[in-house]
UniProtKB/TrEMBL annotation:
Residues 93-209 form the Nitrite/sulphite reductase 4Fe-4S domain. It comes from Paenibacillus ihbetae. InterPro entries: NO2/SO3_Rdtase_4Fe4S_dom, NO2/SO3_Rdtase_4Fe4S_sf. Keywords: Iron, Iron-sulfur, Metal-binding. This is Nitrite reductase. It comes from the Bacteria. Pfam families: NIR_SIR.
C-alpha cells in the first residue's frame, strides 16, 4: 500500500484559522481508516493516506471549502493573525491575495510567510522566514526570522512603507531568488545571512520599481 502526504488548511478569516465542524466531518470521512493526520506549526494539517484514494479525497475536501497544498519543501500557506482590528483595517483582502500567490512553490527548504494586520504582531511575524506587517495604510516587510533552537532570530526589515500592490511581486521575487540561489535544505535565515540583507534589498528593488512603473 503506497501512502502519500499533502497539506490541508481552511484559510483564515476574522478570528483566525478556523475549521468548521462540517469540514472536519468531511475530513474524517474521506481520508480512510489508515490515514495519519498531523497538526503542524504551519497552521496546516498534514494528511498521509493511500495514494490511490488521494485524488478523490482532495476533490471532496476542496468541495467542503478547504485548501489543499503539497507537503514538504514548498512555500507554506500564509500564517496570518486573527485580524482583531477588523477585516478592512487589518487588511484581510491583502492577506488573502498574498496567500493565493505564495502557497505551494517548491523551495530548497520549507518557507514560512507570516502576516500581521498591525504592529501588535499576534501571529509572531518576526519569527517567520518572510513577514508582512501592516502599519496604518502601508506595509513593512521582514526576512530571516528563525523560531527554533537556542539561537532563535528575529527577522530583519527588508523594505518599509510598501503599497499593497507591491507585496506579491516582492515576495514572488524573494521566492524565485531562494529557488535559484538557495542550497538544498538551507534554512532561509541562513540564506539571508549568506546572501546578505543588502543584496536581497537590491535584488528585490526591481520588483518594487516595476510595480511603481
Amino acid at each position: 500500500m503506497s501512502m502519500r502526504k499533502f497539506a490541508v488548511t481552511p484559510g483564515f478569516e476574522v478570528g483566525g484559522t478556523m475549521f468548521r465542524p462540517e469540514q472536519l466531518a468531511v475530513l474524517g470521512s474521506v481520508v480512510g481508516e489508515d490515514a495519519r493526520i498531523e497538526m503542524t506549526g504551519f497552521k496546516q494539517l498534514y494528511i498521509e493516506m493511500e495514494e490511490e484514494q488521494m485524488e478523490e479525497a482532495q476533490r471532496l475536501l476542496r468541495a467542503a471549502g478547504l485548501q489543499v497544498h503539497p507537503a514538504g519543501f514548498v512555500t507554506k500557506s500564509l500564517i496570518a493573525c486573527h485580524f482583531c482590528r477588523g477585516a478592512e483595517e487589518a487588511g484581510l483582502d491583502v492577506a488573502r491575495a498574498l496567500d493565493e500567490a505564495i502557497a505551494g512553490h517548491p523551495v530548497p527548504s520549507p518557507l514560512r510567510i507570516g502576516y500581521a494586520g498591525c504592529a501588535l504582531g499576534t501571529s509572531e511575524p518576526l519569527l517567520k522566514d518572510i513577514a508582512v506587517i501592516k502599519m496604518r495604510d502601508k506595509y513593512d516587510m521582514y526576512v530571516g526570522g528563525e523560531p527554533r533552537g537556542l539561537k532563535a532570530l528575529l527577522a530583519q526589515q527588508l523594505h518599509a512603507g510598501l503599497e499593497a500592490e507591491e507585496l506579491v511581486p516582492i515576495i514572488r521575487s524573494l521566492i524565485a531568488i531562494f529557488q535559484k540561489q538557495g542550497k538544498k535544505k538551507e534554512k532561509f535565515s541562513r540564506f539571508v545571512d549568506r546572501i546578505t540583507l543588502e543584496k536581497l534589498r537590491e535584488l528585490t528593488a526591481s520588483a518594487r520599481m516595476e510595480t511603481a512603473g
